[in-house]
Every structure is written in structure tokens, then in C-alpha cells.
Automatic annotation (TrEMBL):
Cofactor: pyridoxal 5'-phosphate
Name of the protein in question: Aspartate aminotransferase family protein
Alphabetical UniProt keywords: Aminotransferase, Pyridoxal phosphate, Transferase
Family to which the UniProt record says this protein belongs: Belongs to the class-III pyridoxal-phosphate-dependent aminotransferase family.
Gene Ontology MF terms in the entry: identical protein binding; pyridoxal phosphate binding; transaminase activity
């Protein structure tokens, strides 16, 4: 059996139609398959490879740390310099109140940790989340995602969770002194790039402050430069009580984090002690890689060019089959009529050397979340292929 057949036989499958491309190498903006075919990457492993595949500084940091030490002890006991250096670097680039970092293995686990922290810190149980939000696939984070189709098969889930209409001013009064935390993606990604208004975000912040509720912003997908500023919340003039990070945080290695003030985070130290435990969270190799990746993002000033890149995508993506393009920096959704049309364009793109896909809660939208290093020439090439794919849909 070849590798593809073995993959289908022995690797657990999550759909009956996986892409099943066999990629043998990735570098910068590109991937190569087993036949030597080259692909331009327009999705960065779903918002992960912000500084490109195998950035030399990230590879070097991994090699150096792997040769120094790997796993030593469960999270939180030993002083491990890659964790310390990364936590300090993150705190230096965040508002002063976000100064305590709990490293996890994934975004879902960061969501889980934040929910536990909010319950423990406030002594309350209610969690408020929003329709069409995505926060992960573990049972706790699944309980708060905002789509009944994805949740329903796994009931019973966490009790005392409310889902409110995202962006609705009328709903804000539903946050009360019973509410432990409100969890929102700063910009909803899997909904097909939905950015709430400044007015709504500020009202959410005010209401959480009034009721003593923790405001948790999930920037697992939209953070770390993706939306054109280092943090997406900067564009709303607010600061969350807890920030969730993941995906690009590890520079391509598995790493997540929930970040709060030292005071709030202290709740995890007592009654019970060890309030959140992980063996591998904040793995030294992942932290070394993540720190090198975030330093590259900042030192190469990758966010500075994002507005011009976003504008170029918007200029080029003109076609009668496009119903709308929603963009927030280098996170764009091209809305088409329906999933079958979108799938046809996606298949055309992949066949023509461009990797893209659809969004979980917006299957009619084509995803554009490339590494932030994408050049003007590569944007033109990507749009040329997408437009040719749209031509195959024919006249309406
Ligand atoms: C906004 C958001 N939150 C949480 C998660 C969950 O992260 P992970 O898949 O690393 O568990 C994701 C993953 O797609 C995400 O996009």
C-alpha cells in the first residue's frame, strides 16, 4: 500500500472526503506534494503559519531547544527558560493587566482553562457565548460554540451556557451578576469573517465591568498580527480580562495560552491547589519555536504591510459570482451562492496549485488566511487562480 492508502486505512478519519494531499515539504509560502507539484498556501494551516512555513529562526530555535532539553516535568513546577522568556515577551507586548500566561497544548485547552478560571475567580457558573462562534472541539469548548448542528450530537454538554445573538445591543442586558464570563471571538472566523461594531464591543466591555463578569476574548485565530494589529482587540479600544491564544502562537508547533492578570490567575493556586493541570502544556520546544516566531513577526514588522495586502485582495477579487468579500487584514471570506459552488472553486484552486478551503459555519465562503509574508506578486497569482475557478461556474 502507498502512503495515501495507509493514511486512509490506519489514520483516524474525520470526514469521508479528506483532501489527502501528500505534502513532502513546506517552505515560506509554498508546499510541495509527493509528485513534486508546488502549491501556494492561502490558508497557513488555518491561521497558524503566520511567519511562513519553516521560518529559519523558528527551525533554529527548535533544533537548539531540542538538543538542550525537551520534557522535564508537568507544567508549572520547574523554571523552564523557554516558557519564562515567552511569557515575558508576551506580557511586554500586551496591556499591563494581561501579565500572567498559562501555556496549554492547544486552543481548545486554552478555552477550557479560561472557563475554569472564570468559574473559580467569580464563584459563578453561567457562561455566555455567541451564535456562530467557534472555540474548539473538546466537550467544554464544544458546549460554548455557537452552532447547534455541531453541538447537538454530543449532549449532555456543560450546563448553564447561554448563546446570545452576536453583535446585538438588545442582548447585552442578559449579562448579569450571575455570569462568570462572556466569551467572544474578537472577530468571528469560522462564521466567515464577521467583525462586530466598535459600539457593541465597547458595550460588552462596559457591561462585563458593571457585573463583575470576566470578558474573555478568543484571538486564537484572529490574533498575532492576522487582523493588521498585533492583537485584534486593539482595533476596538478595549482590553479583555482574559485573552485566548493558539494557532500562530507556537510558530508552527502546538501551543495555546490563556492570559489574565496575575491576581485573577492566582485563583488556580488554591481550593483546590493545582486548579488546572497539564503535562505537556508550554512544552519547551513549542515555547522556543513560538517565541522565535513572534519575534520574527515583530522584528520583520509583518503587520505594517497588511492594510496594503488586504486592499489588493479586495481590488482584485471582483467577479459576478462573488456575493460579498469580508476582510479583516489578512483574514478574508469570499461569499458565493452555496457550498457546491464554493467546493467547485476550491477543487479548481487545489488542482491549479493553490491551497484554500471553506469555513466551518460558512461553507459557502472561500477562506483566505495566508501566511502574513505573502507578496504582492503571490496575491496577484492567487487571485488569478480564484477568478479562473469562478469562471468555471459559468454565467448566472
Ligand atoms: C477561534 C478559535 N478558537 C479556538 C479554536 C480551537 O483551537 P484548537 O484547534 O487548537 O484546539 C480554534 C481552532 O480553529 C479557533 O479558530
Amino acid at each position: 500500500m502507498n502512503n495515501r492508502q495507509l493514511f486512509l486505512q490506519h489514520n483516524a478519519q474525520t470526514s469521508d472526503a479528506p483532501l489527502a494531499l501528500e505534502i513532502v515539504k513546506a517552505q515560506g509560502m509554498y508546499m510541495w506534494d509527493a509528485d513534486g507539484k508546488k502549491y501556494l498556501d492561502l490558508i497557513a494551516g488555518i491561521s497558524v503559519c503566520n511567519v511562513g512555513h519553516c521560518h529559519p529562526a523558528v527551525v533554529k530555535a527548535i533544533q537548539k531547544q531540542a538538543a538542550t532539553y525537551m520534557h522535564l516535568l508537568v507544567y508549572g513546577e520547574f523554571v523552564q527558560s523557554p516558557q519564562v522568556a515567552y511569557a515575558k515577551y508576551l506580557a511586554d507586548h500586551l496591556p499591563a493587566s494581561l501579565n500572567s500566561v498559562y501555556f496549554t497544548n492547544s486552543g481548545s485547552e486554552a478555552t477550557e482553562g479560561a472557563m475554569k478560571l472564570a468559574k473559580r475567580h467569580t464563584g459563578r457558573t453561567e457562561i455566555i457565548a455567541f451564535k456562530n462562534s467557534y472555540h474548539g472541539s473538546t466537550q467544554g469548548s464544544l458546549s460554548i460554540i455557537g452552532d447547534e448542528y455541531w453541538r447537538n450530537a454530543y449532549r449532555p454538554l456543560l450546563p448553564d451556557v447561554q448563546h446570545l445573538q452576536h453583535g446585538s445591543m438588545d442582548m447585552i442586558g442578559r449579562i448579569t451578576e450571575r455570569t462568570a464570563c462572556v466569551i467572544a471571538e474578537t472577530v468571528q472566523a469560522e462564521a466567515g469573517v464577521i467583525a462586530p461594531s466598535q459600539e457593541w464591543m465597547q458595550a460588552l466591555r462596559r457591561r462585563c465591568t458593571e457585573t463583575g463578569t470576566l470578558l474573555v476574548l478568543d484571538e486564537i485565530q484572529c490574533g498575532l498580527g492576522r487582523n493588521g494589529t498585533l492583537w485584534a482587540f486593539e482595533q476596538y479600544g478595549i482590553v479583555p480580562d482574559v485573552l485566548l491564544l493558539g494557532k500562530a502562537l507556537g510558530g508552527g508547533m502546538p501551543l495555546g495560552a490563556f492570559i489574565a492578570s496575575r491576581d485573577v490567575m492566582w485563583s488556580l493556586t488554591n481550593q483546590p491547589v493545582l486548579g488546572h493541570i497539564t503535562t505537556f502544556g508550554g512544552h519547551p520546544v513549542a515555547c522556543a519555536a513560538g517565541l522565535a516566531g513572534m519575534k520574527a513577526l515583530i522584528e520583520e514588522d509583518l503587520t505594517a504591510a497588511i492594510p496594503a495586502k488586504e486592499k489588493l485582495f479586495l481590488q482584485l477579487l471582483q467577479h459576478p459570482r462573488i456575493k460579498a468579500v469580508r476582510a479583516r487584514g489578512l483574514m478574508l471570506a469570499i461569499e458565493l451562492d452555496d457550498f457546491p459552488s464554493n467546493k467547485k472553486v476550491i477543487d479548481y484552486c487545489i488542482a491549479n496549485g493553490l491551497i484554500t478551503d471553506w469555513f466551518l459555519f460558512a461553507p459557502q465562503c472561500l477562506r483566505i488566511v495566508p501566511p502574513l509574508i505573502i507578496s504582492e506578486e503571490e496575491i496577484r497569482e492567487a487571485c488569478r487562480i480564484i477568478l479562473a475557478g469562478l469562471d468555471t461556474l459559468g454565467e448566472q
